[in-house]
Write a structure and sequence with these properties.
The chain has 290 residues and is an alpha/beta fold. The protein contains 11 helices and 11 strands. It has 3 domains: 3-89, Orthogonal Bundle (Arc Repressor Mutant, subunit A), CATH 1.10.10; 94-163 and 261-289, D-Maltodextrin-Binding Protein, domain 2 (3-Layer(aba) Sandwich); 166-246, Periplasmic binding protein-like II (D-Maltodextrin-Binding Protein, domain 2).
Length: 290
C-alpha cells in the first residue's frame, strides 16, 4: 500500500474502536459521531478486503485479523505521539536524568520545579534521589547534585550552594535550650557523618555529650523528626527556610559549621547535551535569586 495513500483517519478510528470494542465510546474519544467511526472502519475493511470486527448486538468482537492489527496500530500511534511531543513548539524535547542528594532535592529543588518547567519546557526532567553515594555512569545519570568538598575522582564539579549546619528543633523543644549544655538532655538526631555534632560543639567551645538516638541517611527525614519533637537535628537552615520562616522550626543557636557545600557534577568524559547546559544555566540563575 502506498504510504501517501494510507487512510490515517480510518486507522485511528479502528484503533480506538478496537480498544473500547464499541463505536460510540470510540467516537466520544475522537470527538466525532458514532456514524463517522463506523463508516471509517467500514472503509478500512473494504480497502483491506477483510473484516476487522464482528458486529454483535451489544458491542464488537475483534476478528483474528483485527487482533493482529491492534497492537501494531497502538505502538505506531504511541510512537507518533511521542515524536510529536518531542518536537512540539519547534524544539525537540530531551530527557535529563538528574541525581540529587535527598536534602537538596526535597529542601531546595522540589519547590522550584514548577519554575524549571516554565523556563525549560523542552526538557523532561527525571529526578533520582540518593544519600550522596552515586555512580553517574552506572546509574545512567547526566548530572548529579552532591554534598561535599567537590573532590570526586573522574568527576567535574561546579559549586552550587554552601550549606553550613546548625541545630534545628520544634518550638516546644526550643524553649528548653537556654544554652548549649541543655542539649545534653535532649536527643541529638544524627546523620551518617558521625563527626558533625562533635565539630559543632567544638565551634561552640563546649564538650560534646554522648551521642545516642537514631541515625538518618537523609537530612530531610531528620528534620521531619525534629519537627515532630523527636529531638534536635543538625542540618542546613538554608534548605529549610520555609519551615523556619513559618515558625514550625527553630534555630536556637546562631553558631553554624561549614563542612561542605552542594555541587553539580558530571563525568569528565561526558560532553554537555543541550538539556544539561539548559539545566546548569537555570540552576545558576535560581541560586542567585534564592
Amino acid at each position: 500500500m502506498d504510504r501517501a495513500q494510507l487512510p490515517l483517519n480510518a486507522l485511528r478510528a479502528f484503533e480506538a474502536a478496537a480498544r473500547h470494542l464499541n463505536f460510540t465510546r470510540a467516537a466520544i474519544e475522537l470527538c466525532v459521531s458514532q456514524g463517522a467511526v463506523s463508516q471509517q472502519v467500514a472503509q478500512l475493511e473494504a480497502r483491506l478486503g477483510i473484516s476487522l470486527f464482528r458486529r454483535l448486538p451489544r458491542g464488537l468482537m475483534l476478528t483474528d485479523e483485527g487482533r493482529a492489527l491492534l497492537p501494531v496500530m497502538g505502538d505506531a500511534l504511541d510512537r507518533i505521539g511521542a515524536t510529536l511531543g518531542r518536537i512540539e513548539g519547534g524544539r525537540p524535547r530531551e530527557v535529563l536524568n538528574l541525581g540529587a542528594v535527598g536534602t537538596f532535592a526535597g529542601g531546595w529543588l522540589l519547590p522550584k520545579l514548577e519554575d524549571f518547567g516554565r523556563t525549560c519546557p523542552h526538557v523532561d526532567l527525571r529526578l533520582f534521589t540518593n544519600n550522596n553515594r552515586v555512580d553517574l555512569a552506572g546509574e545512567g545519570l547526566d548530572l548529579a547534585i552532591r554534598f561535599g568538598d567537590g573532590a570526586w575522582h573522574g568527576t567535574h564539579a561546579e559549586p552550587i550552594l554552601r550549606a553550613p549546619l546548625s541545630p534545628l528543633c520544634s518550638p516546644d523543644l526550643a524553649v528548653r535550650l537556654t544554652d548549649p549544655a541543655a542539649l545534653a538532655h535532649e536527643t541529638l538526631l544524627r546523620s551518617y557523618r558521625a563527626d558533625e555534632w562533635p565539630q559543632w560543639f567544638a565551634a561552640k567551645g563546649a564538650a560534646c555529650p554522648p551521642l545516642r538516638g537514631p541515625v538518618f541517611d537523609s537530612s530531610v527525614l531528620m528534620v521531619q523528626a525534629a519537627l515532630r519533637g523527636h529531638g534536635v537535628a543538625l542540618a542546613p537552615p538554608a534548605l529549610f527556610a520555609a519551615d523556619l520562616q513559618a515558625g514550625r522550626l527553630i534555630q536556637p543557636f546562631a553558631t553554624m559549621i561549614d563542612l561542605g557545600g552542594y555541587w553539580l557534577t558530571r563525568l569528565m568524559s561526558r560532553a554537555d547535551s543541550p538539556a544539561m547546559a539548559d539545566f546548569r544555566a537555570w540552576l545558576a540563575a535560581a541560586v542567585q535569586t534564592g
